[in-house]
């Protein structure tokens, strides 16, 4: 037997346990197990090789990264945990009695304190020493403690005060005179994750006090919804090794379990706090996204999705911040044709004659006003807008312009500009249809919702409800830019040429429950670059005229303005 080897590492490290054999007689079967080498085979096996390939591994944390064909069967372990400490056996099978080559390696894992936080949190990394005999110089570094100094130093103290720091975000807020040198990190970001070293200088060779702390930063996703919406908070995990218990809770993810638990599952939902909390996706495929029905302002805040993984600190966690808007008078751009803009409430319950709304007028440059003459009256910023007739399809106002308003440049909502005036819904004007905004289809028939983009090789999704800040709420279909990679039901189809940007959604066998708002989202790299389009679907039980044509300038310019005495 080869002599024992000793390998040391820290929690969360990746390290390699060496093992090699001569390949003069050809490749051999090899196994790795936890524990001393028995008379034959490997006990508590973690990996097996048939001579040239790995044929089994307990988890994807165990790998052979060397050249197996040349006899290098060294075991690499990633994401070390304290329970992986102990003796490991590498066994190379050689024909004949007791001919096997065996190598035992002892693995020691140094425990590292763990501090968890979320983006923008204030973190405190604890570190202290006995200062009864006086204070000592201290340094903090981002990385493991070196032999003689702090690697990637971020802060230095002379024992009495901070003498240097890499950023104003780093500070020592404790009582230095009493040996409290805990590091405070303000406004944490994703780059703050990893191992930190607190090093207190003590006179003498190798006398320094060293403490390592691991920081884990969770970047919370952001999902927005309106009061009354049904919203889905996405969370998925890999089920290659089977389903596992998980929970959803309110607040940030704690060290263990969930705080203020609202739902738990052991593979099937076993408990939920309220009927409004549901897992509507396929749990067996690892999709444990949380659906919240009839959202209220009280539902706003942070949510934690926690999937339990055996081993210390192995759980998979995801934090999502849900923002709920309840502004009943906010207007959004509903559609446009040429320079005509159509605005509506963001809450459909308020789009009716009984609820007059506040419409914000559009700003024009002075030379544009002069060019427009009398037509510019009621359209300039701060002036009262005139009422207009329109079809009662949820619209709240129509504005006509000849040029793009300067005040709209850089804004997300052409309807959200200064200068409120009161606009009421008037008599119906047949034929007024906002292009690519309202789609009407027959009951039990086929409905196609148009959506196209010029970037033909990017991912996109369709979802129910308004478009959130990122992704889609209540996903119904996803593409990778070339083909559909997931769909909620076979009723949802993309029949256009996806590679050429036609991602129009077709719903077959339409039912009344298909009515509502749909979001088409094309993902574009960069902050807030995604292309988004919202479409309202209406399902009619009887045949209706074809209104799915593109509105023309003539359609809008024939609208009659109401006399002033109707105000």
Description of the molecule:
- The chain is mostly beta strands and 567 residues long.
- It has 5 domains: 5-110, Sandwich (Immunoglobulin-like), CATH 2.60.40.10; 113-218, Immunoglobulins (Immunoglobulin-like, Sandwich), CATH 2.60.40.10; 221-325, Immunoglobulin-like (Sandwich); 354-423, no CATH class; 438-540, Sandwich (Immunoglobulin-like), CATH 2.60.40.
- 2% of the residues lie in helices and 36% in strands.
- It contains 2 helices and 41 strands.
- It has a 6-stranded mixed sheet with strand order 1-9-8-3-4-5, with no helix packed on it.
- The protein is globular.
- It starts with a strand and ends in a 10-residue tail after the last helix.
- The relative contact order is 0.08.
- Mean pLDDT is 75; it is low at 327-343, 345-436 and 543-567.
- Radius of gyration of CA atoms, rounded to a whole number: 32 Å
The total tally of domains equals 5
Q: Superfamily at the CATH H level of the largest domain?
A: Immunoglobulins
The first-to-last residue Cα distance is: 99 Å
Low-confidence stretches: 327-343, 345-436, 543-567
Shape: globular
Helical percentage: under 10%
Report the strand count: 41
Name of the CATH first level of the largest domain: Mainly Beta
Q: In terms of structural class, how would the helical and strand content be classed?
A: mainly beta
* Mean pLDDT level: 75
> Under CATH, the topology of the largest domain is which?
Immunoglobulin-like
Strand neighbour order, sheet with most strands: 1-9-8-3-4-5
Largest sheet, in brief, is:
6 strands, mixed
Q: DSSP strand (E) fraction?
A: 35-45%
